[in-house]
Specification:
It is an enzyme of class 4 (lyase). With 327 residues, this protein is α/β, with parallel strands linked by helices. The protein has two domains: 225 residues, Rossmann fold (3-Layer(aba) Sandwich); 96 residues, Rossmann fold. The strands form two sheets. A six-stranded mixed β-sheet has the order 1-2-10-7-8-9, with helices on both faces. Strands 5-4-3-6 form a four-stranded parallel β-sheet, with helices on both faces. Helix 4 links the parallel strand 3 and strand 4. The mean pLDDT is 96. The structure holds pyridoxal-5'-phosphate.
Amino acid sequence: MASVMEDSLKSQKFHIVTPLLESWALSQLANMTVLLKYENVQPAGSFKIRGIGHFCQEVAKKGCKHLVCSSGGNAGIAAAYSARKLGIPATIVLPESTSVQVVKRLQGEGAQVQLTGKVWDDANVRAQELAKRDGWVNVPPFDHPLIWEGHASLIRELKAELGAPPGALVLAVGGGGLLAGVAAGLAEVGWQHVPVIAMETRGAHCFNAAIEAGWLVTLPDITSVAKCLGAKTVAKGALACTKEFTILSEVVEDVEAVDAVQRFLDDERMLVEPACGAALAAIYSGVLGRLQSEGRLSPSLASVVVIVCGGNSIDSQGLQALKAQLG
Ligand SMILES: Cc1ncc(COP(=O)(O)O)c(C=O)c1O
């Protein structure tokens, strides 16, 4: 029989209520109040802990013996963190390009690490093979209703803090789990009319490609430096959101995402990764203003919330290297 302590570990949330702070610098640039939802300060360094923590707790209740998660970095760290909290072993499978600091972080959480293939999709194949073992459970990094249910907590927090809906929300899209979770949250709190600006980098733009085509598209390769956005195909559930919500899909170049990372570091003294730079580029590259002038967003938006999604896969040297690489 499980102890009271074990039971409480399985039900206590692993994520924290993150700060929502107005950015003076970004508000000046955008000509409206820019509120930053600081998901990079989550215990596992990104918003991923919301959905993945929830998923892991649910499967732990059902007797899972070993967690396996394929990841570009952040999902794996969230799964390893959750596994340690739950006292369950974890194996995290990542592409061979994964940075040393992410591997060290995972090992520090007590997880076994396997590196395989070029991109996340390759790691995912291996994770699904491993999950066939008895008692092992695959933790889907973005494509599962439990993941979306967990991510929806972010919108509940916004509702509790703001009361009234913001003019728009900005987020980054990889496999589309954050988008689907945010959409679920918006519906839950009655904010389904809030426009969502869904940002991707070129070379990891599977959501934009799907919207253009009208169906799911598998990119031939991931060529963006924003490896954490690097799913070749977006989740079906994310594409389905475009039917019920106002989602504006925008693609920026890698150089814009990395420039946003540098400028955000100077403006807010926080180092985030290119995946998050993609979201911040909505303001630094003037995407928001362009959408307003094109009439796709109201010209009189009072405020926008940007989800500062994560900062695990970067350090000062990594930023210098990216800048040198992109010129
Ligand atoms: C920092 C960061 N931002 C955004 C995303 C995109 O999330 P999703 O795959 O749920 O679309 C990821 C995915 O790993 C991420 O690590």
